[in-house]
Design goal:
single chain, mainly alpha, elongated, 0% strand
Amino acid sequence: MIALGLEQTAEGIHYRHQLREARAAIAEERAANQHEFATTTEMFRFETKRFQTNLAVLQYLQEHPGAAPDTWPGKINWHSYNTNFSTAAWQTAQHLGVTARMSPADVRQLEQLYFALGVVQASGADRLRAITAARRYMASDADPSRLTGTQLADEIELAQALLISQYRFGSDMRNLHGRYADFTPSPDTNELRAIVHEPPVTEEELRELEGRNH
């Protein structure tokens, strides 16, 4: 009986230690993901301007076939930042069964956060595929001024599709920030609207959006 009691006490100590370690690791992972989110927002803003310039150059070339690069409204650049959120601590806690000793409310909150991070990362992957499609012509010739009229029209459509992917990516980031204010900064509604040439949000629309996120 005493031996059984000691064994149970040892197990209890072990589980509490395991839970403390898991909570600390998840908190550290959250901080790392917050930093990644902030970096992604910074790069999102640079890349939005970059992709808008790419489209402007392609549209200029459509109007001025064969124009020399020094007359273009900017330089073509398809490079982008690849967002990568960490889930290792959360997955380890699940694998070890530590989440069973957390409160249901804590588990639910963490599940929702990691789901939202996954949505943003999936949007980033969709955007990467759009970038790959938009720059495919470079495998034959990096100079877009040598594209045929038909090829150039197709390329303009791909550049437009990329900007729509960029808009969706930023929207998912904004939505995550709306639920988790510690993931900041994020793209705001007006800069997202500007990508698709929509007017700035009105105060009434802003209140409605804030209501959806709370």
